[in-house]
Amino acid sequence: xxxxxxxxxxxxxxxxxxxxxxxxxxxxxxxxxxxxxxxxxxxxxxxxxxxxxxxxxxxxxxxxxxxxxxxxxxxxxxxxxxxxxxxxxxxxxxxxxxxxxxxxxxxxxxxxxxxxxxxxxxxxxxxxxxxxxxxxxxxxxxxxxxxxxxxxxxxxxxxxxxxxxxxxxxxxxxxxxxxxxxxxxxxxxxxxxxxxxxxxxxxxxxxxxxxxxxxxxxxxxxx
Length: 223
Ligand code: SF4
Known about the structure:
The chain has twelve helices and no strands. By secondary structure, it is mostly helical. The chain folds into two domains: 6-21 and 148-218, Endonuclease Iii, domain 2 (Orthogonal Bundle), CATH 1.10.1670; 28-142, Endonuclease III, domain 1. Helix 5 packs across helix 6.
């Protein structure tokens, strides 16, 4: 059986690219908002939306919940799909209020953080507009829970390296990565960040730059 090489990939990426310092965000709530806003857009657009929220002093659960849906949509317009995302933020705020007993202060995320991972993940997945990637991003980067994030870059890397066929679903891909790594928040955090950085710089959708990539030596048939 082929040995799962993901730990070696992680070491090679970290050695070549250095630590990522993820996820940018001043509070767990800001990180969670970023995880929702980054759906279907690039991070530069999310930063503009976050800056607008910050300028409007709307980057806390209480303040954001006081905004009308139209006002919230207007502030996050740079992130694209702004009406849909405003509704998703609204669903997330409703969820936070229900979980934290309507105490929608800055500690609401802390309340979530004290819950057990499997049940909390289920609850997040039940929030409209939060899929597995967003849920795992919130769990890992906002709440420091060991929930490995799979995204398009991760799937592409796994497929190109023969670790998973193209149609592999989210949870099977997650298993491939978590079965090769110790369950460790810092390591999951860094591993996902490194994969995204490698994906952006080398493992592009078309014309991957394998010759320059820190993982080029691991490709089947590489010298
Ligand atoms: S660019 Fe090539 S070597 Fe790098 S991760 Fe993608 S497929 Fe692998």
